[in-house]
From TrEMBL:
A matching Pfam family: HTH_5
Domain HTH arsR-type, first and last residues per copy: 1-91
Keywords: DNA-binding, Transcription, Transcription regulation
InterPro entries: ArsR-like_HTH, HTH_ArsR_DNA-bd_dom, HTH_MetalResp_TranReg, WH-like_DNA-bd_sf, WH_DNA-bd_sf
Lyase among keywords: no
Gene3D superfamilies listed in its UniProt record: Winged helix-like DNA-binding domain superfamily/Winged helix DNA-binding domain (1.10.10.10)
GO molecular function terms attached to this record: DNA binding; DNA-binding transcription factor activity
Keyword Magnesium found: no
Organism superkingdom: Bacteria
Stated name of the protein: Winged helix-turn-helix transcriptional regulator
Length: 91
């Protein structure tokens, strides 16, 4: 259990992967669509997506020549939202 949790947090700890997860929170999309917003090569983006997939943060499905990604669980979206709330919370 601990290792599973650590893998999720490690996957989301990288700024590019967090940006990808936030973008995918809006809905399923292919790498070519994500590549428009993220300033890395498609190969680099695909490496980050593999890490997110291996950590069970995102799902991937192939449709023709394109690979589509989506957030695996609404709980991931909630986790991202909760961290944003922590940032804005006043002590």
């Amino acid at each position: 259990m601990d290792e599973f949790q650590v893998n999720i947090f490690k996957a989301l700890a990288h700024p590019v992967r967090l940006k990808i997860a936030k973008r995918l929170s809006e809905g399923e999309m292919c790498v070519c669509e994500m590549n428009e917003d993220i300033e890395f090569s498609q190969a680099n983006l695909s490496q980050h997506l593999k890490i997110l997939k291996d950590a069970k943060v995102v799902n991937a499905k192939k449709c023709g020549m394109f690979m589509y990604y989506s957030i695996k669980s609404g709980k991931i979206k909630e986790l991202i939202r909760l961290t944003e709330e922590l940032y804005y919370e006043k002590e």
